[in-house]
Amino acid sequence: MSATEITWWGHSTASVETGGVRLLTDPVVTDRLAHLRRLAPSVREEEALIADLVVVSHLHPDHFHVPTLRRLRRGTTVLVPRGGGHLLRGAGLDVDELAPGDTGSASGIEVRATPAVHPHRRHVVSRLSGEPLGFVVRQGGSSLWYPGDTELSDHVDDVGEVDVALVPIGGWGPTLGAGHMGPRDAAEAVRRVGARWAVPVHWGTFWPLGVRRGGRVYERLFRTPGERFAEAVTTAQVESMGHGATIRVGGDRG
């Protein structure tokens, strides 16, 4: 496979660069999101929002963050779940709505939308709904699976083999809740897609205001998912990293 560089900005926001083009997943660069506060270092916004193609997995505001998306360079292609495109009306972006099975592309990056098992509504009392997505991304000789937020289910078996799995392993506490994978389920998903490298995301970034830090729940859901994921994965090389760090997989690493 071609060399791929991945920078994790926190939560599910990551830049994936290969062959000189850059994909950005679920961009969120704020330090405060409703009742959530960012406990990780702030994002280097000018660098993080450089992208040739942006994918948004579902309508929840911690993934479909309209203020962040409106800061993207005008004309950037953004792939969103069907039903969510009007949230970006007037933003000057090239917005394309997808459903599972649909495809999109920009700058040589090819994307296939895959199913995800996760709540459809933007928030509990919202009428706005869109089917959540994952994405299989191919560029040159490299392939990557980003499942968005999802439970582990049979749809994972239809993803096909990929080089890299960029998988969610946690949440923002104080419970994980339905529609997510914890470290063990994420490790099983990595095995099913035959990934050679696994990069964990969606953990250790946001925590609710008013919920105590420290203690067993905080340790399990905020601080230790990365360690437990690395212990659970037996079929791939785990590339854990800190917020804002970059790793390289594939190609000539010498």
Description:
- Helix content is 14%, strand content 31%.
- It has five helices and 17 strands.
- It has helices at 45-48, 66-69, 183-192, 215-223, 225-232, and strands at residues 4-10, 13-18, 21-25, 32-33, 36-38, 53-55, 77-81, 94-98, 103-106, 109-115, 133-139, 142-146, 164-168, 197-201, 206-208, 237-238, 246-249.
- A seven-stranded mixed β-sheet has the order 8-7-6-3-2-1-17, with no helix packed on it.
In brief, what are we looking at here?
The chain is an alpha/beta fold and 254 residues long. The protein contains 5 helices and 17 strands.
Write the layout of secondary structure elements.
Blueprint (H helix, E strand, L loop, with lengths): L3 E7 L2 E6 L2 E5 L6 E2 L2 E3 L6 H4 L4 E3 L10 H4 L7 E5 L12 E5 L4 E4 L2 E7 L17 E7 L2 E5 L17 E5 L14 H10 L4 E5 L4 E3 L6 H9 L1 H8 L4 E2 L7 E4 L5
Parallel strand pairs: 3-6, 6-7, 7-8, 12-13, 13-14, 14-16
Antiparallel strand pairs: 1-2, 1-17, 2-3, 4-5, 5-15, 9-10, 10-11, 11-12
Helix pairs in contact: 3-5
